[in-house]
């Protein structure tokens, strides 16, 4: 992803912060404290015209909602590498992510978040979710209508999230982009869509990502007839479906995808 940001979208290398488990520097490992520090760094000192990108590829979970702001009764959460460590501080709830990188966004500032985890659909707690209607058209739904708690908007900026699957779904890995190392299927499908069609719209991007995941939905490492059966089940009944959420609605058929 960092290569794509540099080479395709022109982000300067000094403006990209990468945290990985393999890093020898303890401050660059995706532990909870480091992730929260990185999120604050992302939005600190921003001004109109700035474009921000957050990408997380790892594990995601659900936790019981405690404040009544979730339609399904569950908060979504990211799992830092130390989330189950008694001294690590636990998971990072969607409420925290929203408060840290969504609400501070001022007018003219744009954030794109790419969340490649299980249960990632509304990981930023953005109010609008783009769904495919029964007639085959993308349409926006307000996910926070009628719920208790504050509406989780920006401070005038635009926040957009593209996630690996719906809140109730699991995400798969793919070796297609980084064999023999697995990468998230959403990350792979996003890179493929962007490289295949520069200047695409958000609607075409989302459709292309979903099509790629359906085509590659069987990479489960299960050989033989059983593997074939599971590939069919996953492809046609419960395959992960990348999700698009935003802080405000827009025409996904005409708005170009721009970072």
Give a quick rundown of the structure.
Strand 9 and strand 10 (183-184) form a beta hairpin.
Residue share in helix: 25-40%
N- to C-terminal separation? 13 Å
Structural class: alpha+beta
Query: Which percent band covers the strand fraction?
Result: 15-25%
CATH fold type: Rossmann fold
Adjacency order of strands in the biggest sheet: 1-5-8-11-6-7
Features:
6-stranded mixed beta sheet; 259 residues; globular
What does this structure look like?
26% of the residues lie in helices and 20% in strands. It has 259 residues and is α+β, with helices and mostly antiparallel strands. It has a single domain, classed as Rossmann fold. Strands 1-5-8-11-6-7 form a six-stranded mixed sheet, sandwiched between helices. A three-stranded antiparallel sheet has the order 2-3-4. Strands 9-10 form a two-stranded antiparallel sheet. A hairpin with an 8-residue loop joins strand 9 and strand 10. Helix 4 (185-196) crosses helix 5. The radius of gyration is 18 Å and the shape is globular. 32% of the residues are buried.
């Amino acid at each position: 992803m960092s290569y794509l940001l540099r080479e395709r979208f022109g982000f300067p290398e000094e403006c990209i912060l990468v945290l990985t488990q393999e890093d020898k520097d303890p401050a660059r490992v995706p532990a909870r404290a480091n992730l929260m520090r990185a999120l604050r760094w992302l939005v600190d000192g921003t001004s109109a015209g700035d474009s921000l990108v957050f990408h997380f590829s790892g594990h995601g979970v659900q936790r019981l909602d405690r404040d009544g702001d979730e339609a399904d009764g569950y908060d979504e959460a990211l799992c830092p590498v130390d989330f189950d460590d008694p001294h690590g501080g636990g998971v990072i709830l969607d409420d925290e992510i929203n408060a840290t990188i969504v609400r501070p966004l001022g007018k003219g500032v744009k954030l794109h978040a790419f969340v490649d985890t299980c249960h990632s659909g509304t990981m930023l707690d953005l109010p609008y979710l783009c769904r495919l209607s029964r007639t085959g058209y993308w349409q926006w739904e307000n996910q926070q209508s009628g719920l208790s708690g504050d509406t989780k908007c920006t401070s005038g900026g635009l926040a957009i999230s593209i996630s690996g699957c719906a809140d109730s779904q699991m995400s798969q890995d793919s070796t297609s982009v980084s064999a023999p190392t697995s990468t998230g299927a959403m990350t792979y499908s996003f890179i493929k869509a962007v490289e295949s069609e520069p200047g695409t719209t958000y609607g075409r991007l989302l459709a292309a990502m979903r099509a790629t995941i359906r085509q590659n939905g069987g990479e489960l490492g299960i050989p033989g007839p059983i593997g074939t059966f599971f590939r069919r089940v996953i492809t046609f009944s419960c395959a992960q479906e990348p999700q698009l959420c935003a802080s405000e609605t827009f025409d996904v058929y005409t708005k170009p995808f721009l970072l």
